[in-house]
Each structure stands twice: as C-alpha cells, then as structure tokens.
Amino acid sequence: MANERKIDCVILGLLSHEELTGYEIKKRMDTTLKYFWSASYGSIYPALSDLVSRGLATKREDTESKRNKQIYSITEEGCRYLREWLTVPVEKDELRYETLLKLFFGNEQETKQALTHIKAFEEKIEKELPYLLEAEKVLKACLNEDAAHKYYLLTVKFGIKTYQAYLEWCEEAKKFLMDSGA
Amino acid sequence: MANERKIDCVILGLLSHEELTGYEIKKRMDTTLKYFWSASYGSIYPALSDLVSRGLATKREDTESKRNKQIYSITEEGCRYLREWLTVPVEKDELRYETLLKLFFGNEQETKQALTHIKAFEEKIEKELPYLLEAEKVLKACLNEDAAHKYYLLTVKFGIKTYQAYLEWCEEAKKFLMDSGA
DNA sequence: CTTACCATGTAAGGCGTTACATGATTCA
DNA sequence: TGAATCATGTAACGCCTTACATGGTAAG
Predict the structure, then answer these.
(1) Tens digits of residue pLDDT in B107-151
(2) Which of A99, A105, A173, B33 could form a disulfide with B13 if both were Cys (CB 3.0 to 4.6 A apart)?
(3) Which domain holds residue A140?
C-alpha cells in the first residue's frame, strides 16, 4: 500500500457510499468532486474493470431498468483497501493554474492582457461560487441524515473559503495593475 | 497556436527574463513557480532540445565557467511564440488536492484520521507561508528595479491570500469536527 | 576528503485525456 | 421525430515522473 492509483481510491470511495454505474461515477465527479478532483470516462471504465479483477469491487447487470447498466459495488476487501489508503498520509496536493503562469510572464505583454486573464478568472469563480454556497445551505440543513454529509460539507467549505479569497485577490490585483500600470 | 505544451511556454517565459541552463530552469520552478506549477528534469531537458530544434531557443556552451554548462536563450521567434500564447485565453486551472479527497471519504474512517489529515495540511501551509511573506517583502522593496517584479508579486500575493484562507479553513474544520464528532 | 551542490541527460513506464464508436431511451 | 441524456467502452497518443547513469566542483 504505497503506490495506489488515485482513480481506484476515488471510485472505491464513491462506491463505499452507494452502488453506482460508471456513468454515475463520472457524474459524481463532475458535480461534487470537481472542485478538487477530476477524471474522464477513459480512466473510469478501465479502472472499474481492474477493480473487479482485483476483487475490490463486483459488477452486476441491472435487471430493473431497460438500459444496459453495469452496476458496481464495493467488496469487503475493497473497503479494507479504501480504509487502508485513508490512513496513509497525503502524498501530494497539486495546483496547476495556467492563469498564474500567464500572469507571471505578464511583462511580455501589455497590462491589458494581464487584466483580461484576471477578469476571466474572476468570472469563472463568480459563476461557480453560487453552486458551492447552495450546496453548503443544503448540506447544513440535512447534516444529521447521513454522517458522510459532514465531510462533504467540509470540502464545500474549503471551496467557498478559497473562492472568496480568489475574488478578493482579483480585486486587489486589478487595482494594483491599474494604479501602477500605464 | 492551440495545443501548446505548457512546459514549452514556461521555459520560454523564464528565458524571456534571462539566459538560463536547464538546471537553473529547474531551480526557478522549485522556488518561484512551485506554488502554481512544477516540472521535472525529465521534461525540462527534452523540451529544451525540442525548442532549439524548432528555432524558438538557441543553445551555446558556457566558456567562462569550468562547468560543462549549456546556456539557453530565447530567439525572436520564441518571443513571438510566447507572446502569442499569452494572448490566448487560459484553457484550464487545475487543483488536485488529495487531502480533500481523503477528507471527502472521511466517513469511512474515524474522526481522528480526518483531523490528522487536516493538521498535516495545516503544518505544510504554515511552513511555506513565511517564504511567501518574505518574497512579498523583498519584491515590494524592489518593485521599480524590474517591471517583471510586478507580476511576480501578484502571484506571490495570490499564494498568500489562498494560504491564509487555507489556514482559516483548517481552524474551522478542526473545530467543526471536534464539536460534532464523537 | 567528503559532502553538498552543480550539471546533463535517457529510458521505462504510468497515468490520463481526447477522440472515436455505438446505441438505447426519454421528453418535448 | 429530433435533441438531450443515458450508457459503455476502446485506441491512440501525449505528457510527465521516477529512476537510472554519470561526472565535475566548491566548501568546510
């Protein structure tokens, strides 16, 4: 237990909450996890097959719906694997912001360009923040329904805190460039 | 100009400030850029060769020092390439925090484990923040010496803002878990 | 003299995305 | 009936890291 593929752990984590299809796993990623993790079908489906072959998950066909669904569940061993991973210290938290890269080299362009990148970043954050705030409200309201909500709420709060810090920075950065620039 | 390898752009950006060896490029990454970008020798050296073969940079051997240094410079075309990239909108800002992943699935473990991850995260941030604050002080003092400092300062300020937000979140998260937990 | 740092590069392999390929079902 | 969404998968390829391989130099 040292070099786990993160995709395996994310999937097992989601399966530990409920049974899911590959499609649903992708959806969870694109909604609740997307603020700090992402994955594509091209990594999810192969990972699912792999988890089954390693005995960490099982697959069964859905009989109820008319769709050709493959439903995945976590196994006992999968649970053990997940819990083990959760006890191991975090290896790496990574941030790759192209916006900051372009800003860092801003001197090669005009101030206007730098401002454009900052504004684009600001707009993106302003558009996403309401979803986080809404999620916070909903989660706070049903905190007692599911113990897992507590942890979900913490990650949402993280997103809100940082997004608000981003927006503050955007304001300051714009002011700084407009005052000092030109 | 649509699918530029970011590593090329970072290197060209650094070379636009000054001539550098591959080793020095790596060092710049590990100090000034590491808060929002990273790269290893295994990607830097091949990229440098590639940039030379594409006419975006030139390489010459160092004659002054006794070391076997390969010094790289940006070409006119390299400058054009860089500036072009800087005008293109940002494609992706990515955050991959394993800490949040482990926290999200925190229900599978004890509250204690979640707290451990938060504390480890907090310590890491507390250790790095002073460097950012020091960099801010230095940059503010010599802002007029080099126009590029202005942009460098902005990225440092971004780091400070977010790190401070992280620390606030850590405090709240710890309190939240200790109050609600157990 | 030996440790730390300077300095360059390659090879193997991992991990993941994009694009492709296909088709069913639901809803307006 | 057509668009949106549900649903599963593969293949090619890109990009990067890790580990390996090697050796010089400066400082204590």
Answers:
(1) 877 899 999 999 999 999 999 999 999 999 999 999 999 999 999
(2) A105
(3) 98-179
CA trace torsion A139, A155, A125, B8 (10° rounding): -160
Q: Name the nt closest to A65 by C-alpha to C1'.
A: C25
Q: Are B104 and B41 in contact (CB under 8 A)?
A: no
Q: Are A136 and A153 in contact (CB under 8 A)?
A: yes
Q: Which of A83, A101, A177 sits opposite B108 (nearest CB)?
A: A83
A67 touches strand D (CB under 7 A): yes
Cα-to-chain-centroid distance, residue B40: 12
Whether B110 is covered by a domain: the verdict is: yes
Q: Is residue B149 part of a domain?
A: yes
Of A36, A66, A87, which one is at a domain's C-terminal end? A87
If asked whether residues A105 and A51 sit together in one domain, one would say no
Chain A to chain B, count of Cβ pairs less than 8 Å apart? 214
Give the chain A residue nearest B177 (alpha carbons).
Answer: A150
Q: What stretch of H or E contains A98? A: helix A98-104
Q: Do A79 and B104 touch (CB under 8 A)?
A: no
- Token couple for A176: 């700084």
pTM: 0.95
pLDDT given at position A63: 82
Nucleotide nearest to A40 (CA to C1'): C17
Q: Which residues in chain A have their CB less than 8 angstroms from residue B101's CB?
A: 6, 9-10, 13, 33, 36-37
Q: How many domains does chain A have?
A: 2
Q: Using the CB atom, is residue B70 less than 7 Å from strand C?
A: yes
Per-residue CA distances from A149 to A30, A87, A135, B176 (Å): 18, 20, 11, 13
Last residue of some domain: B87, B118, B147?
B87
Q: How many angstroms separate the CA of A24 from the C1' of D3?
A: 21
B contacts of A154 (beta carbons < 8 Å): 103, 106, 114, 173, 176-177
B1 in a structural domain: no
Encode pLDDT of A6-24 as tens digits: 999 999 999 999 999 999 9
Q: Where residue A51 sits, what CATH number does that domain have?
A: 1.10.10.10
Q: Does one domain contain both B47 and B74?
A: yes
Separation CA A148–CA A134 (nearest Å) = 18
